[in-house]
Structure formats: C-alpha cells, structure tokens
Amino acid sequence: LPNSVCSHEIYEPLKILYLSKSEEFAAMRTSSIKSLLATLSPPHYRCLMLLAYYWHGLTAGLDKEDPKLAELAQALGHLILRPRVETQLTAHDKHPARFLRDLLCSPLDVFASTAADGWVPPDFADDDDDGDGDAEDVADGGGGSGSGGEDVVRGSEDVGGGSQLGGAV
Fold this sequence. Notes:
With about 170 residues, this protein is mainly α. Helix content is about 50%, strand content about 0%. It is built from ten helices and no strands. The longest helix is centred in the first third of the chain and has 17 residues, at about 40-60.
C-alpha cells in the first residue's frame, strides 16, 4: 500500500505513547490513543475500526502474549502505521506492532465511544452460504447483526446508522 491506514501525522505521537513498556500506564495510553484516532479522517478511522474488529474476531482465542498474535502484529503493523518517510531508524520502531496488538486485543477499549453512540461492530460471519468468508460478507455487514450492508460501506456518512440501528437490534 502506498499509505498506511492511519495518517503519518500520528506516527510520532503514538511513538511517544509507547515509549513506556509498563502496563501501569495502559489506561492513560488508551485514553490518549482514543484522542489521537479522533483526529483521523472519517474514512481512515472507520477503516481502522473495521479492520481492528475483524482481526480481533480472528484472534479472539489467543492470549495477549501469544507469539502468533505478536507475529501478526509485527507483519501488519507497518500497514496500519508508517512515518511519512521511512528511514533506517524508523524501520526498527516497535510501536506500530505494539499499537496493532493493542487494537487486536481490545478494540472496544479504543473505539468505545463509537459503540456508546449505538454502533455495534458487524458480525463478520460467513452467512452467504458459499463458505468462503469473502469480501462480499464484509461488504454486506456480515450476518446476524441486523445492521445491513448499506450502513457498513456508506463512506463518510454515519456508519451503522445510529438511529436506524437502535430499532434493529
């Protein structure tokens, strides 16, 4: 991809947030991440949110310290977060992978305000009876949530339809 999902403008602020490896600052870091992500454009924010929920569903049975989760975060971290210009120094930064691991383990913590507004993450189950788990399933919002595909792929309009969703759930 030519650009990462998150804007390069939040690369350095996220790097600062992840300087401390201590978990005692996790709540403060989560709060700061929420604020930073709120500065993303709506399409970038929604794309990140949907990817986080989708990948969370795929990795739900894994412990936060599982090596498979760390490998996935390392492999995909640079797709989610990259600096404007990659240098030899930024090539070894660990915070994109740590950020993605946090998103994979607890997307509800980061995107809680969206859930509080009435939007619920789509169920990415394969319900079109072809058994392939394809993009068609993601585009139609998955099965079972009652959200309808038009709400998930709507672009800059309200994802989930807020008031529309309230009566459907």
